[in-house]
Amino acid sequence: MSSRKTGRIDALADALARRGVLHLREAAALLGVSEMTVRRDVGAHPERFTYLGGHIVSADDVAGGYELDREADSHAGAKLAACRHALRLIAPDDTIFIDCGSTLVHLAQQIPADLPLTAICYSLNVANCLAAKPNVRMILLGGIYHPASATFSSGEWLEPLGRLGINKAFISAGGVDVQRGASCSHFHEVPIKQKAIAGAIESHLVVDVSKFGLVKPAFFAKLSDFRSILTEEGARAAPVDA
Amino acid sequence: MSSRKTGRIDALADALARRGVLHLREAAALLGVSEMTVRRDVGAHPERFTYLGGHIVSADDVAGGYELDREADSHAGAKLAACRHALRLIAPDDTIFIDCGSTLVHLAQQIPADLPLTAICYSLNVANCLAAKPNVRMILLGGIYHPASATFSSGEWLEPLGRLGINKAFISAGGVDVQRGASCSHFHEVPIKQKAIAGAIESHLVVDVSKFGLVKPAFFAKLSDFRSILTEEGARAAPVDA
DNA sequence: CGAAAAATGTTAGAATAATCACATTCCGGG
DNA sequence: CCCGGAATGTGATTATTCTAACATTTTTCG
């Protein structure tokens, strides 16, 4: 049905990857077809393109945030606020570790474009944010991809993490319990988080207050492992002892 | 001058982080101001927001992304055609290696959603494509990110690659020379490509014909290392000897 | 080849958004 | 309390985009 059509769609996607936005007119000229046809093409592929008032944008650009979970946006405001506290802790030329989770995606997004950093991560979403920052030197811990959390389990690749000099580690959690500490949903994340915390000069727990009192299957740290706990309500010193 | 104003800007950013896109009308209602004011606010902060035909999106969403090379789409059609040949070689439950470069991004995109595979890659762009395929088990070789090519240089993480059982490796090149073999622009890619080729049962070079006769700084393989060379003009057996 | 179907192009009128000039409100300092 | 300037709102005007119906071309297949 559509060898010509498929080619167009693909050319569009490529152009978008390069330019970010494409006006209907430009797209039509680029593809050598009428604007009407471009409109129809774009409309036929809502999963790849988003069409906004005459402009074409790659669909995942506007994906409504990264929504790892349905709850990803339920506390977006709180998460954003918590990240602002984290941002204030970052100094130029720091080497930071950014954990996974929607909370820290916000942190990665908000890193100023002109702040020089080395950032270590193991989440595809975080990596995509960091890749867009020209002054961030990114190190991604690879391995087997886990779709549920958009992270990689490092396995054999984990060991070199211990040799990286981490200045500040920003860690998130699915649950925070004063007695038992911080927990998350995915077991493969545990060794990575622990290694990052162990190797960092200072670690900070970044969560929104809705996580307090929750418990997830995998505990990975005591609250006393953190120098501070950053929430939308402000930064507080972590309890000195579990 | 603007404590009220700053608050609005922040509220807008929050809403955007949550919703992805915001229509002028919604934004005005949300902030409790007139559409004109929202228009002015957004226009005053081009570094945070992009305004497209009545819709507001976060600026870094539309950041203009990857651009591996200026030539990325100049041969999009050819690259796509070359990938179709590659696709035909892939069987269910294969373990494949996908090299970097815009050509192979097309390959990753075109993997059918219902084809179960294990795929190894080291390019952020390819990884993003593979992450969208529910039946692909992805392994990403991490390391230091190289923005110019959107790839990772594996360094210490490279060694485990040798222990992965690769069924078919699909390799791209920036230049193909009958005498001297295949070359690429970035030196850090050389050991990865070589290790993949060495570890794979069969390797295939996927390029468009515009690459023939070109020479890039880093040679990484002889043409006889490949079982076949796949171009938009079809698959041909690789020369038996350099 | 020839008919049917799909894809593309064209047009005009309706809907929507952008711009501008000016009216109004809000706020801090005499 | 009043004044001046900044911020905001309003409405008319102009420009742009959207929609849908229909004309034309291209492809498919008997």
Automatic annotation (TrEMBL), chains A, B:
Keywords: DNA-binding, Transcription, Transcription regulation. Transmembrane segments: none annotated. One of its GO terms (molecular function) is DNA binding. The keyword Acetylation does not apply. Residues 5-57 form the HTH deoR-type domain. PANTHER family: DEOXYRIBOSE OPERON REPRESSOR (PTHR30363:SF8), HTH-TYPE TRANSCRIPTIONAL REGULATOR SRLR-RELATED (PTHR30363). This is DeoR family transcriptional regulator.
